[in-house]
Amino acid sequence: MTATVERDVFFVSNSVDELGGVTSWSHQMARLLTGRGHRVHVVGITPPGVSQEIGDVPYPTTTLYAGQPPRPGRARDAGMREQAARLTALFRAARPRAVVIVTQVWAMEWVALADTRGLTVIGMSHESFAYSRACSRFQRVRRHYRDVDRMLALTREDADLWIVHGMNNASFMPNPLPFMPEVPSPRTGKSVVSIGRLHDQKGIDMLLDTWAEVAPLHPDWDLRIYGSGEDEELLRKQCTDLGLDDSVHWMGRTGDVPGALRGGSVFVQSSRGEGFPLALMEAMAAAVPCAAFDCAPGVHEIVRDGEDGLLAAVGNTGELARRLDTLMSDKELRDRMGEAARVNIQRFTTAEIVRRWEDLFGFLER
Amino acid sequence: MKEESLRSPDVSVVVIVYNDEARLPTAVRSVLEQTLRGVEVVIVDDHSTDGSYDVARRLAAAWPDRVRAHRLDENSGGCGAPRNRGIAEARGTYVLFLDSDDVLQRDACRNMLEAAETTGADLVSGLCVRVHVDSRNGKEVKWYPWLYTRTRTLDSISELPDLLVFDTLSTNKCYRRQFLVEQELRFPVGIHYEDLLFSAQAYVAARRITLVPNRVYDWNVSDRATEKSISNRRAEIANFRHRMEIHRRVDRLLADNGLLDLKFHKDVKFLKHDLVLHLRDLPFRDAGYREEFAATARAYLESIDRAAYDEVDPIHAVCALLLERSDWDNLLPAVDTLTNRDKISAPLVERDGRVYWCAEHLDDDFARHVLDVTELGHHTKPVERMFLRNVLTGYAERSGTVRLAGRITNPLGVVPPGARLTGELEFGARRKGVRFQTFRFPVTALRHEGDAIAWEASPDLSHGLRPLGVVDAVWDVRLHLGVDGVRTTTRLTACEPGLVAGRFPVRPRLTRLVADRIAPEVSSRGHLAFRIVTRERVETLVASGVRGTPGRLAKSGYRGAKRLRGRLTSGDSKIRLYHEVFSRLPVKRRLVVFESHLGRQYSDSPKAIYEEMRRQGLDFEAVWSYAGSPEGFPDDAVLVRRWSLPYLRALARAAFWIDNQSYPLKLTKRRGTTYLQTWHGSALKRMGFDEPEWKLRPRPAQAEQQRVLDRFDRFLIRSEHDVRTLARAFRLKEKTLLRVGYPRNDALVRARREELRAGGPRRRGPLARELGIPDDRAVLLYAPTFRHQGGRQRRFELPFDVERFADVFGDRYVLLVRSHYLNHVVLPPSVRGRVLDVSAHHDVTPLLELADGLITDYSSVMFDYALLGRPMFFFAYDYEEYVHEGRGTYFDLLERAPGPVVRTERELHTALESLDEQSVKYAEARDGFVAEFGEYDTGGAARAVVDQFFSEWRRA
Questions:
Q1: Residue B294 sits in which domain range?
Q2: What ipTM was assigned to the predicted interfaces of this complex?
Q3: pTM
Q4: Which of residues 223 through 262 in chain A touch B, CB cutoff 8 A?
Q5: How far apart are CA A308 and CA A330, in angstroms?
Q6: Which of A160, A316, A318 sits opposite B151 (nearest CB)?
Q7: Where is the Glycosyltransferase 2-like domain (chain B) (predicted)?
Q8: Quick check: B107 and A169 CB within 8 A?
Q9: Mutation target among A97, A163, A274 for the B interface, most CBs of B within 10 A
Q10: Which CATH number characterizes residue B17's domain?
Q11: Under a CB-based contact definition with an 8 Å cutoff, are residues A266 and A334 in contact?
């Protein structure tokens, strides 16, 4: 492979510290690339609505707007050029072979106005194709990422779908594993663990329907639902109506994901849609086998069905219940799949993903 | 940059050119503007006589590091020699080929290089798009896109035979240069279709092939080019010979490499596509061409695996066979069907209960097998649903009157000798939206000639045909044949060379200035049409007319009319009309709207309730909704077409809605309307919010769905099983549930009671007579559930051999087959009288009542039929697949079925040996089944509904 070139790398997102997966991802990557000797700069378009603690970072950050930009229209257009000029100034100051990574398509609207001549521009979509397809981002990605050097989806399958829909510059890049816990779960506790916001997208309502089929078969097991969110009240009511209050525990939001995983022997995910779900990767890194709805390419990219976890057709709660039942009934299977998961998930370690990024930078220069 | 130019480029693109100086720079620019920078261009000129080579040299001079120009010493006449030279000159790690009239997509090299380096493939292939450069709206057709829906890597071409068989291009591919060198891959020289052989060789030799969904190559197609490119000149017999020779070489290559499966796939494709391509032109060619063509084709057909005939559509196989036998009389009509699918172009014959394409060749087993077209089901169609071949036999024009004569095929004698025949010619503009007026002319003579109907007509077109002009230049001709008052429509086939010719005057209404003559022409489908001919000297005037004010006015006029009509009849404006206008009218107190299965049938519980209301002589206004035709719906009700304005008005004003599935989802029910949802069957399969698809919906969509379901004021229940399944799955409130049983099943309960009371053999009703069932045969009903079939057709393949069934059981049973209303089934004539298709009967209940035994799989008729206490058979040949890959079931049928569950045809036959035995053996199980799933079905459901809701409408 090509010898490592130290580059200037810009991450441009909606915000530098907005609450969400993209922010965590950007700063994880920014730290990793900084560690490799690259000169990183994280740029946000606006201040966040709801912020997230990013701690001390070993690279500069810039936010273009002091407040929210005006609504789309003439007023915004005028201001955009001014902000884009600030981006241009940052880009011009970079050394040759610099790279601009646009993590969200909204931010691309500003990057597109900036002068990126001589730089490699990469546009990213941090969700499944199907999820974009169902909303306005589908058209916006096609418009604003049309001319970038590479548009990156999360999986080969998503990239292929983008290509078929006219994005001939599409390729893919998986997310890196957030952490590798030293100590795997002993898988002794008779608990099934779910971690995720209590929001429609995470399908906790379907998880409760599923659990209603499994719980009677395994009276000695419980379901621990970590997370908080707007739907909590509705879901708790559904839980009560289903008569599951004895076996379901509402754990609230946790800051200690490894700890939560260590308490479980099976991880369950019942989402309606996902991109490249970190929760599954974290569970696998903790050697906890997963049962999940196969709701996106990212899911079956992470979990190898039947080898290091079990998948069910999305929405088919009966099937997900059978998968859970299989894992809960068979300790040996849990151990085998859990250990396999911990090994297999290594293909997404930070070192591996950083190497792939550096290769991509090099490839796009050829 | 200097350092880079020393490195060999990643990719060499070999651009070949012959007398194409104008387009060459565009092709080369598409390479230089690639997003991948390390790309060189190798131009090879096939000794052009124009300035192509000079252009090439200028390009090389302009980009000395990236473009090189070479020239063959003499013209080779093909693509092979220049491409071979290109391979020799290339320096890149990878090689692509580009023709001077085409272009590379700008990311092509980058995407193919990435794929090649990631997978280590010798060969990467991507999507080619045919760009019709002359089309007004930028028509583009993807080249076999199903091969290129996702990235995939093959370790051998045998993993994907379709790739070799269909994508025979060499240009949408990226080859590792070392691979070409080591395998000594070169294009054949001195023969056309060199791509076919080269690509086949490359596929076979490659150790790994990667397919990418990316568009890589734009193949520019010129539709109106006078000098068509080589691959387009199909008419030339020499080309056909080249093609056959290339096929033979590819076959040899496959045989040498032991790739027999690929050869088989290729044979299938040959019958399905290659041969068809040539056969379609055949009717337009003269006898000399046909003979030569047949001689060449016959020799090749002999090498085709006969098993391949079973893998293609019957008409493809029939054509190949007739060609092989040089049976022109039968082949030419068959080609008509090849071009016009569903057209019945042969008289057909019935022998031994099967239908054959023609009476000839049937003494040969293979020919007989191929010519057996029973499965097309032509014998089951009434004449109005047949598209009959009507071949023009005479054409003569004199002073604007055209004398026409022709023969209409009469397959299987569908037009009986004594039939009353009428005929009419109809001229209509081809262009959609301007068909404001059609012109009709009488058919003057009609004669029944056995296997054809001969006709004559002499339309005076000069006076009788009045086109507008400009917007309606082409006029299609149809002949409507009336057979005892039933109309069937034909097109006039006129492909005999030289039959129709000449031009004569007509009188366009708008633009007589520019065109006032009309001439016959033959469409690509071989049908007679007439075209308004433009006078040469005013051609420019026409152009300006079409694009200028008159044309614009005419066009915008009809477009506007079309738009307006579209808007007025769109679903949205209808829904608005319903809510904003109709719903403001007062509710009519005694108006009841009935519907069954979305208007498809007059059946089920809505029918049973309706009939009970009539029986009791209630004073009310009845409206029935129908979806297709009003045939079979009651005379004593107002009939409205579903989604018509009268339908919406009736729904808006009704006091009661009664249906068994759902009224249109988007219609809000008024407060003053009561919705009786009878539902149409107890559930084995998961329903409603128990289905994955429903669960998956986001909350707002679920809420929307719930609003639709909450329109039900009453929901009929026939057992507590329904309460646990349907009512819960639809999240219905307890007070909605009406535990009275199904009105449709009253008849079944009564039939059972009557039987027990009377004892002795059961008396059959009029339906048995109507179906012609002899008294000494028992009646079995086969009623499977709906199955999703892939493909266009909704043909339902019976899971057992119906002829064998008739042979084994025909002297004891009559089998009634009722497919789901979305599937349809074809029975061969051989089983006539022994197996009957009763799918068209609106109501299943009388069929259930008639049947002495039921065969089903997972259909909800099981719950209803059980009420009769007669034997039931469960032919669950795909149970696991159905249960596990589908949405799941509420209970395990295998445990609870009140009759034998069989998996194979043989088991079915064994079980059917004795109805009596099964009847006794499962008597208890059936009673338990009824108790569990039909406890409220006690025979008085319709009356209970009437008592509860309509008693005050009884006349004093």
A1: 239-301+314-383
A2: 0.92
A3: 0.85
A4: none
A5: 14
A6: A160
A7: 12-152
A8: yes
A9: A163
A10: 3.90.550.10
A11: yes
